[in-house]
Records
---
Amino acid sequence: MKKIYIVITCFAGLLWGCNDEFMERYPLDQISDENFWRTEQDLELYCNNFYPTYIKGFGSGWGTNSVAPYGYNEAIAYGDVITDNGAPQSYSKVTADQYNGHISGGSGSGGWSWSDMREFNYFLDNYQRGDIDPAVRNVYAGEILFFKAWDYFKKVKTFGDVPWLTHVVQTNSPELLAPRTPRAEVMDSVLHILDKAIGYLPEKGTEKPDRLNKDVALHLKSRICLYEGTYRKYHTELGLDETKFLEEAVDAAEKLMGGTYSLYSTGDAVNDYNDLFATYSYDGNPEAILWKEYSEDLTMGVAFSRYYAQNLRHRHGATRSLVDEYLCEDGLPIAVSPLFMGKDSIQREMMNRDPRLPQTVANFGTYNLQAGVQGANNAPKPNIPGLNGNKCPTGYRVAKWFLNDPADWDRVTNGMQAALVFRYAEVLLNYAEAKYELGQLDQAVLDETVNAIRERVDMPPLVMGNIPEDPIMDGNYATYCSYVPEPVLREIRRERRVELAFESFRWDDLMRWKAGRFLEIPVEGIKFVQEQFPTVVVDKDVFLSEDGYILPYYQTLPDGRKFDEEKQYLFPIPIEDLVLNQNLEQNPGWESN
């Protein structure tokens, strides 16, 4: 399924702005509340507004819009730069416990925006006014409910308790000065409207071109319910039971499994994983549940491939923390595998590893840019500090999403690399984790989920009762978390991190697992080998750990990143909104900021 060729016009603001009571007749060539809502086309055009807002892909145009309040570019590939998977040249204030956007931003900033919610509720208050077949109009109600559920999910992740709004709020509505609705009530309501959306939306293959279907909503449900279920389990301070949401996550995933979808594979374990993300189209790809297509001809493109491939935006690199988590080819962690060749150079540590590692992080000499192209000095070796040009601060240049096509780079804002938004591998990982958390995991579940994903890259299967030890990962949990997960859960989480790296999942995973302090693991890059970078000067251009690994924040963040567990699992409400509504209470830990 794809989402792109939709002409967007902001109808809602026009409708709200109409005050035509003095008129007895309404011009048919202009949009007004009185002559709208009459046809299916009216409903369809209204819904079109929300497709680019929620199905962002890589964004549009220059692709420079940022995600509030996190502060990274909205393209899917950039989300991990604020986590322990990635490191931008300029450190993230979010991960350094220096976020203060709620002080400088005005009302409705930092994710506390309710304009879309007003538009959703305006539709739901009015869409039944016209003489339209209920079966037809309910399809568009399903789209609006889908987007409303997604919007509320984002708000709950960000703020916890948020106001639940069922109808349009007027200037004299009591909801304007009401306190926040408890999280449990909000998420029950999210689940309710998402189920309604699933009921209203058409079956896959029967929807209009480029529109939502039932499977897309089921995918979102599996994601939302896994998040909420595990958040409740590990954030015991909430006192909320997780069972219902975990069961709903399982149910949604099961409805997508064993039928239409499968993992993309041509049998080429060395290239298939990377190829999945470097394409112009997902037509016919059995793993794609939702994707965004771009078109130069329609001037609906984005300057993603040009800038991502050349390490310009965010000038980021992968971290040693991520690289160390990839298994060796024998299915064993690097701490215990006889196949691990050590960390004396990136070339040695890449040997005998999970094939997804060299398809996610570029070894020297791989995924090169064409000579003469801006940014080409990031290959065959990464452009680490001390070299001219745009930097890869860790030396681990990201290869995932790398589309090696100068023709697309030359299109600039009309770039056409397709964005994979929802894919089947996530459904399998959601299912495996939810089944474990419910105490229902067995070998059959592992085989149809984790092991199916591993099979794509010829990695050994995970076997119940024979889970390998990993003193590094267990040690990190012991140091940075309040618990050490059972080995099989540790491996499910590893699989999720590896398979979904640089797809903007890691932050949410750390938050729901109550593992935010993983962000405090020292940010390290490649082992610096002087012979490979003869002009780079140690302690001037680059700074190294005792083991010789590049430390990108040695000067700018000498005390390392910090995560305050008393406050950072949620973001603050803008100060201005607290002033406007005295019944709102600030999230814990942010009161004095």
Note: The CA atoms of residues 59 and 75 lie 6 Å apart.
---
Amino acid sequence: MQVPRARTLLAVTIAFFVAHPRVSAAADDKKRAEREALKASLLQVLQRDPLNASRVGVHMMSLDDGGVVFSHNADELLNPASNVKLVTSAAALSTLGPEFRFETEFLVETESDGLKAKTLYVRGKGDPSITTERLYGMVGDLFHTGLREVQDIVVDEAWFDDERTPPGYDQEDSDRAYMAPTGALSLNWNAVGVFLRPGERLGAKGVVEVEPPSDYFVVENTLTTGDRKARRFSVSSDAAGAQQKIIVRGQVPEAGGAMSVYKKIDNPPLYFGQTLKQMLVARGVKVKGKVKAGLTPQRAKLVFVAHSDTFDVVLKRLNKLSSNFIAETLLKTMGAEARGAPGSFAKGLDVVEDFLAREVGIPRGTYVMKNGSGLNDANRFSATQLDRILRYMYERFPLAPEYLSSLGIAGKDGTLRYRFDGTEAVGRLRAKTGTLENVSALSGYVQAAGGEKFIFSMMVNDYPGRSGPVVRGLDALGSAVASVGSTMGPGRAVAELASGEKSSSPMGEMSSRVKTYLALSSQHDPRNIGFLRTAWRSERDPAVRAVVAEGLYQSNPQDYLGVRTLLDSYSAGAEVYGRLRTVARELSVEVPGLGSLVELAASGNVEALSRVAELAGASAGDNLAEGEMAEGLGAIARSAPEDLVLALRAASDKDREAATTLLARGLVQTGEAEHPFWKALRKSLGASDPKVAEFSRSLEGLMSRKVAEAKAPRAEPPLGTPVLASPPVIGTGLSETRPGG
């Protein structure tokens, strides 16, 4: 029955194409024309600045016919940044399965009765999704087992080995939440929320609270309440034996609301255990003893097991929000599940490499993978290899829906929420972003306007300047693919990229627009973000664009994308900072954007510190600008002194000379003999890096001299004496200690 039916279908198909040869030929011609238009558009984007001066790898394939649509240096091994998470998540989804659930076990001594437990053991299995809310739910379940009294709490994380962070993390000394360590017992992605608010009156001590509260934290609070401009504070986190020390310095504005900062913790099991203890007590369970690390004895009795959501839910947080912590935890989980406990980074990487060789067809040794998150300079993949992984996961149906749904959707959510606005890519493109210093990447899937489906991988390394133009170039490449089959075609993406180039507007018109956006910025209202995003994308004047970017940042200072937009938009050149200084004098306001950059720098943001040093150099000769910079540098020196020392070391000779002169003025204005800056400078004299120590010795002498000069009364020059626009640069001997110098 089957053979005659198949023959009939074949005959009908052949008859159709014999009778209508032009239909097939016309479709082929159209497809070829679309491919040529796409290729031409992609080449145009790659030939523009700054992509033409960067190392770029691009590979695009059609999922409909399997053909390579575009290839440019596609086999060159490049740093993929967080695109490594595509590899980690593919291996984890294949190894663990979408239905996998993490377990956390609660056990008691066998001689414990239903109400009292000599010891409560908590045995972790690497669940990366436990939050304060989930832990409180676990405490409720324990309470309902009858538990009312506990002597000691023992946290057991033998499921993982003792190595907290993989290669790549050692390249950065930071307490930021994205550097959080792994743990078989973890809480809140091993980060703590530090919440700040002003005191009751001007000059009063500021309020600092940690979430979740527990005896694990020791808070050192020197925060004060300042005027409306005083949002310049820093929060640092450091290990303190069995506890975590949170240091808060600086000022918050009297009229400001609550502000939050998230920092990593260093001892995950004790963080978990101390928080558990606090919650048990709050629920009505007495805890008489201590929280300590240890192993669960075989005789212990299991009383409760907490299960996570299924792995496909956890996977969404990994890729949509680009969680380094989850990625590295997955490596150890794969190692423990597939190679036996304790899970380690080495075992996890072996599982990933086996998956790539055996299932995807990417041999060991043809790439470099040292961690699961892509952090820093530790990994190398080619665009062709990433596309091969994307294609493999797409064709593996039981896993494809979960894998694709974990990626950010252009213009909708995740790290792509604010990208591709106004293009054909919105809602059509799903991808993973990757961002590091001088690295930007984007890889994923897109269904074009004409219906054809593509996979793509694009990586840019070693680009000159800032990331903003690179990101716009990558978005133009993605938009071009999404536009295949549309009425406008892929050429529209290139046209929009060209139309987005900056052009200055007349000063009067610029002042009016700046005044409008400053009013919106002062509202600090997150509801303005959508409007401001649209305004920033469409604004052509670079100075006005920087003011809009400040509005985005001030609308939600905790939003990484707002911070990134401000840093990419603000520059020390005449087109932005120079023109904004002119507008500031006209409107009788502070230089727009400067306060926000100082605020970021005061929190320890490395790029903002670098930008402030550049602005100090550009302010020379402008008395008002110099005064603002002196005040700002004084505030930074109070709340982020160690970071400021490193930023001065990295600055150019010209910018360092100007910045140290203005910093001396700022230190004198505070009138403090024991300013935190001097303490930090003395501390850096003993730095493990001899170049940092040498620079600090030179800087101490230089600053002592400049502070003395700033304190000395200035004699008025004789009438008619020309005034130098900027002080002459005095040789300091500091250039020898610059990185790479």
Note: The two ends are 81 Å apart (CA to CA).
